[in-house]
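#lab-general

N.A. 3:47 PM
ok so I finally got the sequence cleaned up, no stray characters, all 412 residues accounted for. can someone with queue access submit it? mine expired

B.Y. 3:52 PM
send it over

N.A. 3:53 PM
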Amino acid sequence: MSGASFGWVARCARQKSLMAGDRNDNACRGTGKRAAGLAVADATRDRTGLRAGFRRRPCAAHLRHAIIVGLIVYNIYNLTSLYLMADIQPFTVAMRLFVLVPGSLAIFWLVPRLPPVFREILLLQGMFVASLLPLFLLYLSASPYASYTLGELPLVLLFGNMLLVLRFRLALIFTFVTCLAALWVIHTKPGLDPNLIFPLTVQAITGLFFTLYGNWHFERQRCLSYVAQYDAQNRADQAERIGDELRDLTRTDALTGIANRRHLEEVLSGWRTGHDAMLLLMVDVDHFKAYNDRLGHVAGDEALRRIAATLKAFADRHDGFVARYGGEEFTLVFSADVETGGAFLADRLVRTVRELGLPHPARPDGLFVVTVSAGYAGAGEADRGNPLELVTRADEALYAAKSAGRNRSKAG
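B.Y. 4:20 PM
back already:
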């Protein structure tokens, strides 16, 4: 694609993107660095996508088909040269059959084997031969009817500009050079009737102009069609992306940033599909109400965030899942057997939170650091009951741990 065409298309795409950005401003406001990163990625993808899309010119199969059709039609003019260029008719047939035909067949063979850039240069060279050969024959012929063969020229231009669909910048070069050559032949050909010079000049210029205009119009319509198609695809991608973000927001706890209870229920409902065993832990922060009453809710929120981050790291380390169940309660799910891994994971989790060393000045038991209690329950491969029942069992074990003095774990 020409630089001018791509610049025009890129401006159209940017304008559409800005309009879409204005419409989605409220949806994107407040996303901060994440939105900025998405915008940069989208801008890069848009530019790359536009360039890649406009490099898709007519396929090799179409070009090969057009070459064969053009070659057949072009050689039909061997019959007209019998009447219009009788003085050099054998020479015209020889030039078409032994110069143009082998060259066209070589291009036919090379088209699917060359990169698009070299393919277009090769086609341009072939079209120069196809357009300049009739002019050369016209200049050589002394027949009084030879000037009628000038009618072949717009058809050759039509083939190159509209059937082969040369890029506009290549079509412009092709048409301009052919026009200069035609004007030179018309004005310098010996024996040409002076009364024909002006009409032939007008016919050549207007014929060539209309084929070039047709090429430009085709390229412009193709650009508009692609921008519309790309814009529709971009909107669909953007809508899907926003939908994913909104879905993530509905599944994420706003305070801690980990999964919420809704996400937990989705995970529990599908967990047994890909796992043989399930271990579920219910975790509760000890004496959290006293913590809030003494230090305030802001400090309480910060403590929950730090505990949630610790539990998330713990779950990731053991290939598990963590969610905030509600208030100061959390739920962790692991693919582990309760008999071999339940006590190990639960005790280790309690110790991990205790080792955070978060101060708790309002504890009545004299420990003075934030701790958690945990209850756990599990289901084996043979147990295909409702996973939500594990929550009830683990919750009962949790309260047993709290009744036993907190800062410990119990099995359910």
